[in-house]
Amino acid sequence: MSKPSGPELLLQKQYRPPVDKVVIEVPAGLIDEGETPEQCAVRELREETGYVGVAEETSPVMYNDPGFCNTNLNMVHVRVDMTLPENQNPKPQLEDNEFIECFSIPLTTLYEELKRLEVEGYAIDARVGTLAEGIEVGKKLGLGLGI
C-alpha cells in the first residue's frame, strides 16, 4: 500500500483450524480455471479486503515444502493506490464462512511488529515471515532497500 508515510504491507488476521490459531497472512486464494495468477491476486484482494489494486510483478512458482508435498504458489506484487476513491472506504466481499480482519504494517517495522504479534499468540504465515526476514537481513547488510 502506498501511503504518504511510506509503503505498508496489507495483512489479514484469519483463524486457521489446522494450527488452531489466528494467522497473520497476506490476501490469497486459489486460481480459478482460466485465470492468471495476477488476475487471481487482484480478485482475492478485492474480495477479502475491498481494496482495488494493480498487479505489478509475479514471482516464479515457489514450492512451500518440496520435501513433503508439491504445494506451490506465486507471490504477486499488487500496488494499492490509496488516493483512489474506491480505496477510501473498502468493503470486503467475504463468503459466509470467511471472517477476516484487515490491517497494514509499515515495511520498515514489519519484522518487529510480527515478533510482537507472535508474542500476543498469533501464528505468522511463512510468506509474511520470510518477507520480514528478508527486509531485516537487507537492513543489516546495508543494502539501502529504499523503504
Question: How are the secondary structure elements laid out?
Answer:
Elements: E1 2-3, E2 6-16, E3 21-25, H1 37-49, E4 54-58, E5 62-63, E6 72-73, E7 76-79, E8 100-106, H2 110-119, E9 123-124, H3 126-140
Parallel strand pairs: 3-9
Antiparallel strand pairs: 1-2, 2-3, 2-8, 4-7, 5-6
Domain Nudix hydrolase: 1-128
Pfam family, one: NUDIX
GO molecular function, one term: ADP-ribose diphosphatase activity
What does this structure look like?
- There is one protein chain.
- With 147 residues, this protein is α+β, with helices and mostly antiparallel strands.
- The chain has one domain (2-140): Alpha-Beta Complex (Nucleoside Triphosphate Pyrophosphohydrolase).
- The chain is built from three helices and nine strands, in the order E-E-E-H-E-E-E-E-E-H-E-H.
- It has helices at 37-49, 110-119, 126-140, and strands spanning 2-3, 6-16, 21-25, 54-58, 62-63, 72-73, 76-79, 100-106, 123-124.
- The strands form three sheets. Strands 1, 2, 3, 8 and 9 form a five-stranded mixed β-sheet that branches. Strands 4-7 form a two-stranded antiparallel ribbon.
- A hairpin with a 4-residue loop joins strand 2 and strand 3.
- The longest helix has 15 residues, at 126-140.
- The mean pLDDT is 93.
